[in-house]
């Protein structure tokens, strides 16, 4: 891809961004997906008609040969050879035309498959934190992987089976009508019977597919959660409990899958019986016409061949309909993401040239979407640029929510936040967040090297800068102990490292960004004394001269904070330096006494 060329998926994102804010009809969504690929689909269909022509021509050639053989006095063997040559050519051309048909179809379907997955990932990046907190990650994985695969299968089946079957029916009825209108009318009767049959089973199949798809998503979410919980499960000897939970979910999935299979089998068997009876009636009808001398014996074979083609085509549609229903359900599933309106909380466009770090909360009230209880209540707080503020209080007091608000993850229900005097509503959040660094309690690392985790999202970091950051983060001893130094692979979630080592890598990741605002959420609470000491040394270097928010339960770690904010029920009840608050003997003093 050229440097100035936009990714192909960008067009997909624009399509759905400009679309309606609700789940649209599945096939309208499919149309939007394939917009821009219709030339490939048209060429694929053209070569399909050519490659599929033997199905329509062979019955005619067969009828000709039978009529020639039954009337040798009126025909010569040369006519037999001519018919053979024609049918041989028609059959052989299937190879190149099939390759061209699949080539153009694959170009369209693979483009849509890759583009749709990319668009889903892009959309997930732009959806609100509230949206992600409400859905298990396993469910979202199921949408990106399983549902997109089902949609690709649906689109291929529409082009392979549905369009092929529909074309075969139209051609067979057209050729038959040109020779005998009465027989053609008999053929036409099959179509309303097929429509009635599909309509009779449609609602039941859609319901069973919907239940099965939701159960698959539930299972996917539970499996992802179970895998994450394995260390905790193993530590508490709860393996059997997790196995029982999984078995229960799988039992429900098995039951719904069984019901779906039975419904599909009943639908397929009913269709086969109905159309086999139709075929026998067709044979009887055309044989009766030949018996009366109205058509030739060759025509009987030709009509039977065409009727067989029609029945095979309709049976093909009936057999593939359950898969179409699954694809339809998958389109509904991904549409829940594509058309979701729960986008990021702030849509401001103002890019701040520089961030000094002054943060202001003005009469902020906030509650989560699934609750009416306020987490923050009329919070007023002003943090000066470069000031280090510690937030303390009991669990549920609103400390971590304050950090999430500073990050712009949540928007106040009432009141407003400002950065350097600019309302958050006006600020371009992505550019603002590039000036922030977060060191959470549970460090998030990915399965790359130590260097990759430190320089995550950054390019062209010099070795000098990297070494400077390593020293500031007190990380040199960790790297020296690693077999491949900075290039050591740390395993998924940094599983090969201790808690203190992971925290120092997270701090190095924060330092290298040279942020103006630092958010520390219980960064040392899970560490032993030695690890805590080293991490605290790194933190002191990190926060120097930067606006810093520290959430801490261990009050001894915030002695050097410029100001300590004591929170209760989502509001500030006391603030001051460590010494001031201890001398006041208020809420902070009570908390400190509990830890004494």
Automatic annotation (TrEMBL):
InterPro entries: AAA+_ATPase (IPR003593), ABC1_TM_dom (IPR011527), ABC1_TM_sf (IPR036640), ABC_transporter-like_ATP-bd (IPR003439), ABC_transporter-like_CS (IPR017871), P-loop_NTPase (IPR027417), Type_1_exporter (IPR039421). It is a multi-pass membrane protein. The keyword Plastid does not apply. One of its GO terms (molecular function) is ATP binding. It comes from the Bacteria. It is found in: Cell membrane. Residues 359-594 form the ABC transporter domain. Gene3D superfamilies: ABC transporter type 1, transmembrane domain, P-loop containing nucleotide triphosphate hydrolases. Residues 57-326 form the ABC transmembrane type-1 domain. It holds the Pfam family ABC_membrane. The chain crosses the membrane at residues 41-61, 81-100, 158-175, 181-201, 265-289, 301-321. Keywords: ATP-binding, Membrane, Nucleotide-binding, Transmembrane, Transmembrane helix. PANTHER family: ATP-BINDING CASSETTE SUB-FAMILY B MEMBER 10, MITOCHONDRIAL (PTHR43394:SF1), ATP-DEPENDENT PERMEASE MDL1, MITOCHONDRIAL (PTHR43394). This is ATP-binding cassette subfamily B protein. It comes from Metabacillus malikii.
